[in-house]
Amino acid sequence: MPNDCLFCNISKGQTPTEFLFENDTLVVFKDINPHAPVHLLIVPKKHIRGINDLTDDDHSILSEMIMVARDMAAEVGVSQSGYKLLFNVEKGGGQVIFHLHLHLIGGWKK
After folding, report:
1. Using one digit for the tens of pLDDT, what is the confidence trace for 69-108?
2. Which of the four CATH numbers 3.30.428.10, 2.30.130.110, 3.80.10.10, 2.40.30.110 does domain 6-106 have?
């Protein structure tokens, strides 16, 4: 894990970030540059650079990320109106921070 990884520092509590959810595996917080009224990041505490760096040992982390995203969508009130779950993969796919994270995006009005 690189010492300068922003999401590692956030997940360790080394930056002033309000967690909407935290357990032994994940943290969830608001994106500082939201692209929608609701824009949350679901971030594993374990440093995984991105989707292409997942190993067979990471199955449980990935499924937990999706299940927590589902629960957070209900908690913030977008589960019925609809939302997107998005992984950006590598620079060409829009990944800016190279620590695996899942975007939960929603809350648009009709």
Report:
1. 999 999 999 999 999 999 999 999 999 999 999 999 999 9
2. 3.30.428.10
> How far is residue 50 from each of residues 34, 36, 37, 78, measured CA to CA in Å?
20, 23, 25, 26
Q: What φ, ψ does residue 75 adopt, rounded to 5°?
A: -65, -40
Q: Which residues are catalytic?
A: 101
In tens, the pLDDT along 6-64 reads 999 999 999 999 999 999 999 999 999 999 999 999 999 999 999 999 999 999 999 99
